[in-house]
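ZP: hey, is the adenosine-5'-triphosphate complex queued? I don't see it on the tracker
AM: it wasn't, my bad. submitting now with these inputs:
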Amino acid sequence: MSGASRSPGGRSGELARTTADRHPSGDVAVLEARGLGKRYRRRHALSDCSFRIPAGRVCGLVGPNGGGKSTLMELAAGLTRPTSGSITVFGEAPHTASARRRIAYLAQDKPLYSRFTIEETLRLGRELNPVWDQDNAERIVRQGELPLSVRVGSLSRGERTRVALAVALAKRPELLLLDEPMADVDPISRHQLTGVLMAEAAEHGITVLISSHVLGELDGICDFVLLLGAGRTRLAGDVDEILDRHRLLVGTDDAEDPLPEPDLHEVVEVRRTRRQVTALVRPRVPVADGWDVVEPAVEDVLMAYLRSPGATPLITSSARPVMTPHAER
Ligand SMILES: Nc1ncnc2c1ncn2[C@@H]1O[C@H](COP(=O)(O)OP(=O)(O)OP(=O)(O)O)[C@@H](O)[C@H]1O
């Protein structure tokens, strides 16, 4: 294999030594936002957004159109600066050269030089990046049956995604930011590229932030989620922790009050069909008899929060930033 190789967790160890404010759980945040805000003229793309993503997680980024996902990716990639609050990557401002070396960002429009061939694109990547895994990049391209001699401008959008992902992974990033990467990719390539992504993330301990509107696409690949709405953090945390905090209550819709204990649970959403009522709640006490109580799937939880913009946000302990005096300024 050409390019520098790195042992799994090698640079994570370095990260652990250099990050001062450890979380009570002992893990280390790769990406952390504290009161983060970004305003474009009068429009607030993000406001007072706080969360942390621990090292090695694959975090699904979800939210409605205009919810602030791309803005967050651009801030995390160091391409734009906050107008309030802070965002750090590996404990540093993302625009610093040392932080940017550790980040790869795949923007929604997959910017590549159209006039370059794939081979020239990879050569440019090799020249620009101190760490570059050429063999891996070529393997990912060849798996899509793309000849290296073809011009990028002649590729379909899905094929460009494959090349862009090959470039991003060849940099051997520690943080990979993927903005709706699979939107143009056919189902078979999507399955295959997702497999490549997961294998690379696991082998090299890459922390991944991946946005998608297709919730089923995130289910099974993400162990962490971040849901933004109107520029704010609405739901963040470990998938297991989030599932553990929610229950789906299913009952018949024959009572006057559809929820027998509305003061006892945080109600995220209530939905009625003709005879049935289904509620997603965060129970504070054991649920009373009369309801079928089911552990929800990730997609159930995400959909309920997306449909209910007024639901009380939940940021679980693994996603809550450590508030140092500096961070509270
Ligand atoms: N460069 C910009 N100039 C002005 N407004 C912007 C700019 N970028 C984003 N916005 C605004 O900020 C808000 C958040 O946009 P953003 O693209 O971050 O949302 P998103 O969640 O990625 O949306 P989508 O799901 O549609 O891609 C929107 O209201 C958008 O119009």
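AM: back. The two ends are 47 Å apart (CA to CA).
ZP: great, adding it to the tracker
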